[in-house]
Structure formats: C-alpha cells, structure tokens
Amino acid sequence: MKLRKIFAGDRLRRLREQRGTTQAALADALEISAAYLSQIEADQRPITRRLLMRLGELYRIDVNYFADDDDLRLASELRESASDPLFGTAVSGEEATAALRVAPDIAQRFLHLYRAYLAVEEEHRSLQTVIVRDDSGAASRFPYDEVRDWVQSKRNHFDVLDRAAERLAAVRSFSPENRGEDFVRYLRDAYRIKIEHAPEALDSGMIWRLDRNSRTLFLSEDAPTESRMFWIAHVIGLLEEGETIERQVRQARLSNDEAAALARVALANYYAGAIVMPYEPFLHAARDARYDVERLQRRFGASFEQVCHRLSTLQRRTSPGIPFYFLKIDIAGNVLKRSSATRFQFARFGGPCPLWNVHQSFSQPGRILVQLAATPDLTTYLCIARTVGLSAGSYLNRPRAVAVGLGCEIAYASQTVYSKGIDLEDVEAADPIGPGCRACERTDCRHRALPPIGRALDVGTAERGVVPYRIETKTD
Description:
The protein is of the alpha+beta class. It has 18 helices and 11 strands. It has helices at residues 9-18, 23-30, 34-41, 49-59, 69-82, 93-102, 104-129, 143-153, 159-171, 179-191, 225-240, 242-252, 257-276, 279-288, 293-300, 304-311, 357-360, 410-413; strands spanning 194-196, 208-211, 216-219, 325-330, 335-340, 369-374, 380-388, 402-409, 431-432, 457-458, 470-471. A hairpin with a 4-residue loop joins strand 4 and strand 5 (335-340). It starts with 8 loop residues before the first helix and ends in a 5-residue tail after the last strand. Mean pLDDT is 83; it is low at 128-140.
C-alpha cells in the first residue's frame, strides 16, 4: 500500500528558524535546491522519506516530529492498545507508526475493536460485584471516549455552528456589556420562554431545567452570572440550531444512542461558547490582549474555563488562532475534558503526568501557574494552569475542586502574555513531561508511578533507585 504523504512545511520552517538556520543553508545540508525547500515549506511538496531521515540526523529529532498530528495521536493510542499484556509482546512506537501509515483503515478497526473489548470488560467487572437484571446490551464503546474521539477528529472546531452563532450575535446586536440581558430578552421574544430562579423546581444536583409546557427555564440561584449566561446560551443553541446539531450528530455515525445524546450536549455547549464569544470579535480581542485569559474574561463576561476552552476552538481555516490544547481534571487526576488543536498527546489509560503544572495548581488555588514543558517527541510547550470551580452554595455541600490547563507549542509562545519573563530559548529549563506513565517512554524519570508498556524491567537486588526497577533501553 502506498504510504501517506507528509506535508509539514510550517513545522519544518519553525524548526529551521528556531535553530537559526537559513533556508539556503538547510537546502545545502539536505543536498536539495533552495527552490525545492521553499516548496516543501509552502506545503506544495511533501517531505520524502530520505529527507525525513536526513532532517532527523541534522537536528537530532525523531522522524515522528513531522508526522501529521492526528496520525501521531492515533499511533500513540495504537501502541498503548497493542501493548496490552493480552497480546503478549509489546509493540514499539516505530511499529505502531509504520502500521498506521501502511494500513490506516486496519489500524482504526483494531482500535475500535479494542475499545469495544474494554467496554465489555468494564461492564463484566461491574456485574461481578453487583448482579443487575437489565435487558440492554453492552455498549460497543465507552460513549464519553467515542464523543471525545469524534470532537478531537474535528480539532474541536465546528465551523457551521461558529458561523451561525456569529450571525445571530451580529443580527441581534448582542453586546458583551449586556449579553446576559440580551439572551433573556431573545428567549422571551423569539420563543416565549421566561427565566426563573427557583430552587424547588430543580432536583438535587441539577443546575438548570427547561420546562417546555410552562415555557420556563429554571436556573440554579447559587451559580455565578457567567454560568447562568452560558446555560441560557446552551438552550438558545438547542432551539436555534437543533437541526444543524442533529445533522452533525448523524454525520458522526456514533455507535449508540448514549454517545449521540452526549454529542448533542457537546455541540450545544460549543454553540453557547460561540455566541458568548463570537469567533472574529473574540479572536481579534485575544490577539490584542496577547491571549490574556483574565482580560478576555472581563471583556466577554465569561469564566476562566469558558475562555480557555474557547481559545482551544479557534481553528477556522481562513483566520486561525494559536493552536492550543485544553484539559480539565479533578483533584484525583481524573480527566473531565480534553481536546487539542496541537500535536499534544493525552494518555488513553491512567492519569496525566505528575510533573505537569495542572496538578500543582491545586496547592495554589486561584493562581495562574506558567510552565515550559518538553514532551518525549522533543516538542516544547508553554503551559498555563489554574484551579476553577463553582461555590458549594452551602456549608453542608462539598465544593468541586477542578483545574484547567491550556498550552501551545513554544513557536507560538511569544504571542502570549504568559511568555513574559521566560527565556524561550532555554530548552533545558523545560520540565520533562509525558502523556502518562504507561504511554511515556522516558527511562530516567524519578516520578514514574508505573512501568512503561513494551519495555523489559531489570529488578536488581544489589542496588535500587527511587523507582524500584530499571527500564531497559532500546537497542538497534
């Protein structure tokens, strides 16, 4: 089967500029013409296998540095999945990458089958503890994971919803200063729906409920203004773009009704973010503020989390923003939300890397932490993290402790306010993070909780380090 062509001109250009190499000098080192290199950097010509190997030697980087972002994430998941002890000998990252390039459809089907296996295993373990009489069949995949994968395949950007929200905001002249009142007025005028804050109308744990019979949207009175505004925007999305959302869900071809329902929620939330922070006005404001999240909060009356998530969706082809990854976790390390417009890889199984600043934010609540972090593929990121969350509303309730992380590749870092005072050229100052212990190939990490998959362990008795085993390094 013919191998996929690799177009990575922008990545090659940024790497060359970071290393201080001119186009002519690099062309000479690669033994090609400057015109040919210019075409590669303009994505008019692919990077050949020979040039990949030569670039790896020149810049001492893994050839996967130039891989397609989606392919890189899929290869990482394929390596994790295929290295399950169920299959015996683990596979290497190189084998997973080769399999994906040579037989991408077969690799995708294997991953689908493995996710189905995990779903059945999870249900089986639950049934071993509690016997439940239920006529429903086993889900072929975890609905949350399936929807996450689908959103990720879209790079967390749904242009049709973005443009629809932008049009409505412009036609109705929704303004940041009065957007909450504008939304309430629009629901009343367009759909004859009123807003009420009535705790007795909500069940325990509920934050809002739309009663179509009485045409009333009940909102929790304990929530901050920006949350209530977002919930109203969510309902506007369901009413205004219901057909568009249904069409997107049908096109996704999700495997079951649960996944489809979750996808509808995700798309309505996307629309809510898009109408609270319309694409072009928000992108221009973000650039002017150098992506300062707190300034954007005040400008659009949104929460810290809402702004961070919106920043990760700005990937319109004609006017893209900085490609960010976005992550939301709780204090136990459970991943609640994750998406990426970058090549950043999230682990499929287990918690995120403990060296990531998103964990440290829980010890300094409310403070923005900034970190330079290098991943195993030698990509350096500028990462910010901060705790967020709603008030418990009562002394007898327990507040939810969560944190969000936002990051971009170092090539874009200078465009953000968070690079102020940081030496972006000092790559040795970057913390060596990974996608998670099971998927991380670092052999010298003293913070490792679990051995990496696919590596033999040397458990000696004459000596030991902080981690009670050595990980054998690869030999060619």
